[in-house]
Amino acid sequence: xxxxxxxxxxxxxxxxxxxxxxxxxxxxxxxxxxxxxxxxxxxxxxxxxxxxxxxxxxxxxxxxxxxxxxxxxxxxxxxxxxxxxxxxxxxxxxxxxxxxxxxxxxxxxxxxxxxxxxxxxxxxxxxxxxxxxxxxxxxxxxxxxxxxxxxxxxxxxxxxxxxxxxxxxxxxxxxxxxxxxxxxxxx
Length: 187
What we know:
7-stranded parallel beta sheet
């Protein structure tokens, strides 16, 4: 194993992380804003209450990574290594981030802010948007088949340019599917 392989370690309140491969590690209350995580690997790791805003993610590998209570503004997930790319987000702020053309099926977004996030041409099949705010999020040629939007808020999804077969929506959320028609819907 290479020298930069770190396993089963807890990192708390740090701002600098050496380049390496991290497996089953936990990062708590760390401020990595504006850091460069290019070519890092994270496998079965968790980030809790961390600031990851404007993090550089060129060829960064995330496999089975959990983010909770994290500030993650302006991230470009499309720059990540696509092999095994998988993560979950809970109570996170992902505003102004981009998942352009990413294949992230079965992703869970729970209680998170996803304002102005770009999901253009992403494959989000079977993903869950539980209690998420999607104000001005961009869905364009996005695969949303079997996604769950039942408790999501403020999304606008054009069914004519996105694949939404068997996606789940609440009755109140149908407004977000009809927005392009500029019609008035009243209770």
